[in-house]
Amino acid sequence: MKGLSLKVQAGELYGLVGPDGAGKTTAIRMLTGLVNPSAGEALVLGQSAQKGSRLREAIGYMPQQYSLYGDLSVHENLRFFGRLFGLSRREFGEREDRLLHITRLARFRDRRAEALSGGMYKKLALACALLHRPRVLVMDEPTNGVDPVSRRELWDLLYEFVSQGMAVLLATPYMDEASRCHKVGLLSEGRLLTEGSPSVLVASMGHRALFMEGPDRTALEQAIENRFGRESQGGARTLLAITPLGAGLRVLLAGDAVTSVVSWAEASPLVSTIRELGLDFEDVFLGLVAAPDASPDASSGVDSGSTPGAASSEDP
Amino acid sequence: MIRKEYQQTFRDRRMLFLLLVAPVVQLVVLGNSVNLEVDRVPTLIADEDRSPESLELAAALTAGDAFTHLGTLESGREVARRVGRGEAALGLVIPRGYGRATRQGRPVALQAIVDGGDSNRATVAQNALAAFVMERSTEAAMQRAQAASAQRGQAFSMPRISVEPRILYNPTLDSQIYFVPGVAATLLLIITLITTAMGLAREKETGTLEQVMVTPIRPEILILGKTLPYYLFGMVDLGLVIVAGAWIFQVPIRGSVPLLFLAGSLYMLTTLGVGLLVSALARTQQQAFFGAIFFIMPAILLSGFITPIENMPHWLQPLSGLSPVRHFVEILRAVLLKDASFGELAAPFVALAGMGLAVFAAAAHLLRRKLV
After folding, report:
1. What is the predicted ipTM?
2. What is the pLDDT of residues A32-80, one digit of tens each?
3. Maximal C-alpha separation, chain B
4. CATH class entry, domain B41-151
5. H/E element holding A122?
6. Domain residue ranges of chain B, discontinuous segments joined by +
7. Which of A220, A297, A288 is nearest to A254 (CA)?
8. pLDDT tens per residue across span A30-39
9. How close does chain A come to B369, measured CA to CA in Å?
10. Is B214–A65 a contact, with Cβ atoms under 8 angstroms apart?
């Protein structure tokens, strides 16, 4: 982690995105006080997140891997964590009923956690993390191993809590998931490359994507690589990424290179179809990894205004 | 926390069995298998003399309970071969000329063959034979002296010193009465230490500890939650083993039962403390298990429960004081058999308490630093 500083407003969903090994989990573990930074300090809500901090009463944490007692029932897991958070019997009863209701787990109250499906298990983990009504919810890859239907359900739940004023920070390697956040931060090798709202990031990139199709996809890919792979304009590479799409290729380009690529393609016997595609959030990430200097806002660490749910970690 | 440990334990039927039924089963098996009494030593005899005297010796040897006669062979070599194969614990060779030598009153040597590979068995067999032969030669010497006196017309008298032991507390020297306290202490050690050591390691392995650590739980509560349930299991086990010992092996309960449980509590302070220490250091259940064994083996071997402390090398003897098993067994035996008072047992009590507090404090400190 190097001088990571990010701000999550109350009522905001912040996605920390990056490839495996980028430091997402480490950042999250520091903010929840599970590890102490080797130097510097991790602050949440203006308080130190050191081990054993009282801050824990205000944070809910949902780890990436299985973290509940498989041999205990849904109810027993909830009761155990309720006790650890010092809830009274009455408080616990009300919250359990409510959480089981909104997660639609009430029917499975007496089922063992290990017998739940992946999606139900995650919902139970979410319920356990929300029992003490935290102001900040931190989640590490919340929809890892969850089927699409349950995934949507989990997101609906998250939006509901966020709309009630909770600040949510989640880490994910999936771009489609990141694009559902209000704000995303791109993390690579412990540094924040850029952050902003997904749509603004996409618009500010200035990339364009083309779809090309031809009789021989492999030969076409090879030809594009040979022609544009080493080309650059003003320090930025022309060709950012090629990914297969249907029977053809999705070619991500620096914005001003499109004209030359299109005229090359129209002359090439390898290309039979060409059209422009809309950009999505994944392109931002692919573009950044290919040309990190070309980020729209390379200076990380935006700090301003009141910080109901600000998290920062500094490592000089 | 405590309720959760019980729920998990009671849900796991096999674990419950291991905690409550297995100790009694083991007590019965171990209590019956340990037997240091000398009887029924399987014996082979080679009679190379074939005289009335040699036949009489062989018959006398195998008449009592001490030796079981497996057979009589021609040659000493054959006996040695069979003892070497483990067919008998003892081989006795009566050499040619034995009968003549005894008739003439000359010294004669018998050959005993034992398998040193099993030194325990060898010692038992050798001692039994030595006692038998000593008795025989004293008898022979007396007869000759008596005959000589009679020839000279004198009244015979010869000084003969013997030992009449009066054995206190365990008059029949029943080795089971000696062993049951040791077995009880060992079982308690293994059960409480391994369960605590594995408990936290399991939570680390399954990731549940992480979820627990982000709650505002205080470290003291976590430690208490991870030890108190196993302490209570240990107390139940101690009660079960004492009752089973009294019922099955007739181990008397002469002393104060509360005193036993007080000793058990102090003892478990150490065993649970070591368990915590191991679990603080281990990352996986496997590491925790081997860490626990690493402490358990020396603690048992150094306790003097299997080999007497006096028989250990001098440099090793002081280390035995570090084994909590030693002190606990000492208290168990003294209270069960002798109705010893707390005052008489102050030394082992102080040792157990000191050890327990030190280990538990160290474990708590380490856990606090490592986890919370």
Report:
1. 0.70
2. 888 877 777 777 887 777 765 677 888 899 988 888 888 889 999 999 9
3. 102
4. alpha beta
5. helix A118-130
6. 2-35+174-371, 41-151
7. A288
8. 888 888 777 7
9. 9
10. no
